[in-house]
Amino acid sequence: MRTKPLPRSQPSPKSGRRPRGAAKPASHDPATPPALIDFMMKDWKPSSTQAPAPIEHAGAFAARRRALSKLYPAETLVVPTGHEKVRANDTTYRFRPGSDFYWLTGNVEPDCVLVMVPKAGGGHRDVLFVEPNPGRGDPTFFTDRSKGELWVGARLGVPQSRARYGVHECRGLPELAELLASLKKGRTTRPTRVLRALSEKVDAAVASSDRDKELATALSELRLRKDAVEVRELERAIASTKRGLEDVIRSLGPAGTAMSPGGARSEREVEGVFGLRARVEGADVGYGTIAAAGAHACVLHWTRNDGRLKKGDLLLLDAGVERETLYTADITRSIPIGGRFGKAQRQIYDLVLAAQRAALAAVKPGADFLDPHRAAMRVLTEGLCAIGILRGSVEDALAEDQQLHKRYTLHGTSHMLGLDVHDCAQARQEVYKLGKLAEGMVLTVEPGLYFQLDDLTVPAKYRGIGVRIEDDVLVTAKGSRNLSSAIPTGADEIEAWMASIWAR
Ligand code: GLY
Ligand code: MN
Ligand code: MN
To answer: Global pTM?
Structure first.
């Protein structure tokens, strides 16, 4: 496979004009006179004709395409990955592939589209549309600032992508419009389903129908149970995340950061320290890091991260490394910035930990997805009543038509985890939120308590304390396995963990 020669890219006619589809030059770009183009097109070493190695776990990606194929015999399925998004003017955010497209192909280049075309004898022919790499045969290699090899690096190209991704066929993206137009015409006789909202061009080319939503739902539901490759990737993401948390703890101690020797002083530094680990060991963070110190911890998705760190406060750090394979961890630890929990902080921390342990014990195949949530809410509500924050009985507070504990618990306890931090979001309620847990599912268990600074129902000593403890859990054949159990959770363990990192 590795040494098979590939067909060479076809040179296109030389011209000073911008080829169709090439990006516009920016206002500050120097001119490219014809003489320069002529000069640039000559005297390059011939490019390699060796086929690239197949993608790791090509068989797992192919198995996923076959599973999807079985659901929709005789229908054409169109799954785009999406495009780079403008950040400002002519700069873009770093591209992140569409999760469903990636799950089916393993491909991480922007703009690609997978089209699964039904075969006469059953099954589908998987056609992957990718950006061609014209090599040095086309001036776009140095004139096209969004796709050119000398601007953004080489795209893999058509024959190389066929070899690497093991699909039945690869074609260049310029051929996609024609195929989509033929699908539009034949839609009544040969149904087509499109995964929407990833590519405006694809959406516009094929009329939408209710069938599209069913495709999105099916993909989410296929992704609910993880295969062995996916579980291993999640474990690796969690291991990197643990190292990222340790980096943050180190930065809070005497070693500090380059900006703050003697101890990191801002939430921004915490975010930056974790982000360095994520970029070095993974592709990125799987979601915006929540580095919430003091009362900021009472804001669930505090990603502004513009606060100061104070020694007596807790830091709620909710963060996850996303691997190159795009699987992400989602871990929260609430740690004392100065290394020791205060009395009130520890009291609330221990209550959240008890709730989390009850929820973890409720994760097993056949249980309701909501059982861990119910278990956590009961423990938290009992605790809130015992402290006197909730008045009246536990049962009254928990009653469906009351739910009074939510003033302090705010959010659900679990969500699916995988390629997306909130994974499988298009799955039907009856198989996800109102469904049963099954072997292979990976979910978070993350209860919390949040006492706002201005909440008059809360004794003053607790106001401004926010605690969340979040682990990532695999449902196994007989129960569950906490994939993040190596990251300390007990208050004593956390203090000892911090002390040991600071002593190194
Ligand atoms: N990091 C967001 C969440 O825990 O759901
Ligand atoms: Mn989280
Ligand atoms: Mn979460």
So the answer is: 0.95
